[in-house]
């Protein structure tokens, strides 16, 4: 049973000495909370009760295969679609009933950013900066320079990647408290991707929160603090990148001095997908390696090669229906 707060206070030495009690540090309001978020399109259930909590000041990766519901979630957050049921709040503002206040907190990059084709990048961004207010043109110029964007070209004449840069500049230019980015690196070349990841890290350093969907798991791994993996409109797993990695199976090669003792290895806890080539046993391991090592040791181990799992392994394990 939890200890009652009054009991804790009675034994507080500061309290016993008659000193003033120190008020607990205020807990920062989450940047984003969704509860039971559901969206149905006629016969299709795009989202089916999505619960998310994104703390302030983190980079949150939102992953899932094609059709999982990522864009639908993000469009609801951006006020472009209404949930069939459930709620979403941005810094406490309901995205439906308090839409304007929620939108003021956001920088949003749609997955299919096109903008106004007849305007140049400069005209487009000037227009959006006026509508939004409080945008420093120096910041716009700096963002454009960093991403290698030519502001004088018409959007309609830009390549997909260059148009995406305009989309990124408009999302970042007003230094929003929450960036919601749908596939932000789609179409960007590797140098621009790197610059973009730098911008995300800087936004976090400055106290901002970034919620981004992506198919590029290595990128998410490089920049995200927390991740949710979505499948068929439901959150399958959520946690820190480190926690998720620990869940995934490691792939291990054990080289023996003689033929690999497959029968002994197969019985060790956590061993899966066992096979051998020559003197090497290949397997995947779930959890601790202790049982595997005790089973293998009597047969003479010459070498161990362990491939640490990455987010891609977590992702593939989940979709292979593994625990
Ligand atoms: N306007 C719509 N009308 C009907 N069905 C829709 C609509 N928008 C999305 N859907 C369906 O909702 C489901 C989720 O789609 P969504 O675009 O959110 O997935 P996603 O995770 O963003 O996929 P991707 O990675 O391919 O972009 C899909 O089955 C999709 O076909």
UniProtKB/TrEMBL annotation:
PROSITE patterns according to UniProt: ABC_TRANSPORTER_1, ABC_TRANSPORTER_2
MF terms in GO: ATP binding; ATP hydrolysis activity
Keywords: ATP-binding, Nucleotide-binding, Transport
Gene3D superfamilies noted in UniProt: P-loop containing nucleotide triphosphate hydrolases
Domain of life: Bacteria
InterPro entries: AAA+_ATPase, ABC_transporter-like_ATP-bd, ABC_transporter-like_CS, P-loop_NTPase
Segments forming domain ABC transporter: 32-257
SMART domains (alphabetical): AAA
SUPFAM superfamilies from the UniProt entry: P-loop containing nucleoside triphosphate hydrolases
Spans annotated as Disordered: 1-23
Protein family membership: Belongs to the ABC transporter superfamily.
Name of the featured protein: ABC-2 type transport system ATP-binding protein
């Amino acid at each position: 049973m939890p200890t009652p707060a009054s009991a804790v206070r009675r034994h507080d030495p500061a309290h016993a000495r008659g000193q003033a009690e120190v008020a607990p540090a205020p807990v920062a309001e989450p940047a984003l909370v969704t509860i039971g978020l559901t969206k149905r399109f006629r016969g299709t259930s795009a989202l089916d009760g999505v619960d998310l909590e994104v703390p302030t000041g983190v980079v949150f990766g939102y992953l899932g295969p094609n059709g999982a519901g990522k864009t639908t979630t993000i469009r609801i957050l951006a006020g472009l679609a209404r949930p069939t049921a459930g709620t979403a709040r941005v810094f406490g503002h309901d995205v439906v009933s308090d839409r304007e206040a929620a939108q003021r907190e956001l920088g949003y990059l749609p997955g299919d950013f096109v903008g106004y084709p007849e305007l140049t990048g400069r005209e487009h961004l000037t227009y959006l900066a006026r509508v939004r207010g409080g945008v420093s043109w120096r910041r716009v110029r700096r963002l454009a320079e960093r991403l290698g964007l030519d502001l004088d070209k018409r959007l309609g004449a830009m390549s997909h990647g260059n148009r995406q840069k305009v989309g990124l500049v408009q999302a970042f230019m007003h230094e929003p408290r929450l960036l919601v980015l749908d596939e932000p690196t789609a179409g960007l070349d590797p140098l621009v991707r790197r610059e973009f990841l730098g911008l995300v890290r800087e936004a976090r350093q400055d106290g901002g929160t970034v919620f981004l969907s992506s198919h590029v798991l290595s990128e998410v791994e490089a920049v995200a603090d927390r991740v949710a993996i979505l499948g068929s409109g439901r959150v399958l797993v959520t946690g820190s990148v480190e926690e998720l990695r620990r869940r995934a199976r490691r792939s291990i090669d054990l080289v023996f001095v003689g033929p690999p003792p497959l029968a002994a290895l197969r019985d060790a806890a956590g061993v899966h997908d066992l096979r051998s080539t020559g003197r090497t046993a290949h397997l995947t391991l779930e959890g601790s390696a202790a049982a595997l090592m005790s089973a293998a040791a009597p047969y003479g181990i010459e070498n161990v090669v362990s491939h640490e799992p990455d987010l891609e392994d977590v992702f593939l394990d989940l979709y292979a229906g593994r625990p």
